[in-house]
Amino acid sequence: MLSPSDWDAARTTLLLAATTVFVLILVATPLAWRLAFARGRWARVAEAVVALPLVLPPTVMGFYLLVLLGPAGPIGSWWVKLTGDTLSFSFAGLVIASCLHSLPFAVQPLQNAFESVGRRRLEAAASLRAGPLDAFFSVALPLALRGYVTAAVLTFAHTLGEFGVMLMVGGNIPGRTRVLSISIFEHVETLDYAAAHRLAAALLIFSFVVLLSVYLANGRYRTRVA
Amino acid sequence: MRLSLDLHAHRGRFELRVAEELELEGITSLFGPSGAGKSTLLQALAGFLPGTGRIEADGVVWQDGRRFLPAHRRPVGVVFQDGRLFEHLDVAGNLDFAARRADPRGPSVRRSEVVAALGLAGLLERRVDTLSGGEAQRVAIGRALLARPRLLLMDEPLVALDRERKATILAMIAELPRRFGLPVLFVSHLVEEIAQIADRLVALRDGRTAGQGPTVAMLERLGADVTGHFEAGSLLEGHVTRHDEEYSLTGVDVGAGILWTPGAMHTGVGERVRVRLRARDVAVSLRRLEGVSIRNQLPASIAEIREEPGAYAEVRLDCGGAMVRARITRLAVRELGLEPGLAAYALVKTVAFDRRLEV
Fold it and tell me: Are residues B83 and B197 both part of a single domain?
């Protein structure tokens, strides 16, 4: 049904989404933790910066990222020296761009979850001789589990659907940086509506099934708690 | 445990300034009205408030200008007002959480002993959000003990409970120091609570200490500004002389005479008990009364009369060495011609007694 190049795009997309979820959960955890328990003005500034990708046009983000990650850019040139490869128009560059672009989708659910765990429970853990890391893994993490599921699903789904940033940073290299959303765009450009339909429908159904299973799992969790 | 404190903390406009040496043994109550700084002091001891001054315990510095021993390294257990059990674990899981992290140098606390002392056997499988307030606090106390602390801090642990449960848990708390070999620092703003269980009392007012000493002597000394206006009263020590099963009364010999208190107590004959009398429940008579329903009439001599602004006066009666406070009107003082040195009787309705407890 799908052409080999569409399968390539699907593979790239899933790999990108999975990698983004993995990296972002690791990066967003300490960030969300600090934001949840920090007080004062700088924490609010940091919150605003984290939320920027929500409102910025993807092309604006993509453009700045291209400048930063390109071979002449500060990060890109360092990467070239390190690996001999360029960061822009590569899979690694896509991962970086997609992580930044989905940052608020991971940080905000985690921050909410940590805030509802609360300082008081952590004090209780400390009074029972649990050090900060111990308290995180034995108290905060299990209580914030739903926040983690939400963060992972939102990040995954958001990465599947992203177009603008991907195109700016990754270009459209088959097998390397061509993702599903770009494939669909290309099918439409070449007036191959049938192929565009197949991909679009597959993406639609897949996204729906992912979200539905999360909501079902959450609902079951809720009724069990009640 | 000997604590040497030099604390200075700000909470908005509130200022805590405490420089005190505390010898903690048995149950020490940190006592004062709401907003006196009791909880702040407790949090500083627990290690939740960095930068608040100096704390030294048995020669070990917990914190000063340069060092700060974090909460999880202090040999201190905390029972919070709101329990703070972990909802992702059941009751047994909460106890295990503490037991796994227990301080090997702390007093030996056996799990079976904790379960027995606090009546937790039937609760172990329960989810913590199905526990009643009293059950949750018992679990919280057990959890704190199982970490084997060398000092147990309790921050008004009974504040959310009804009267009946309060009495049960107070009796359990009173047992802890002897049973598990650790001192307890118990925060409360209720005279009734501390009168029953505290051996010593540290009074706190407006962020400053207002003295410390044995509970009976301190309650005698403290004014209404610390104890709260209607809580002024006196604490008598005595021993149980007999139980009257038919009328469900218990006689307590307090030296000057026998006080009849309601309820057949569990306390055996001969055991020592404390009885607290609120000043407003005590009346003064110049002679023994006949044909009156009041059962308790203690012979006394008037030691002191303190007239307050307004309608009332406080009469201190010496009942064979025990001091009893009576709160009566100034008019009564005048019309009866009460004055220091006069012989009189302290009258107490039997129904006026708070629950008593063994000491």
Answer: yes
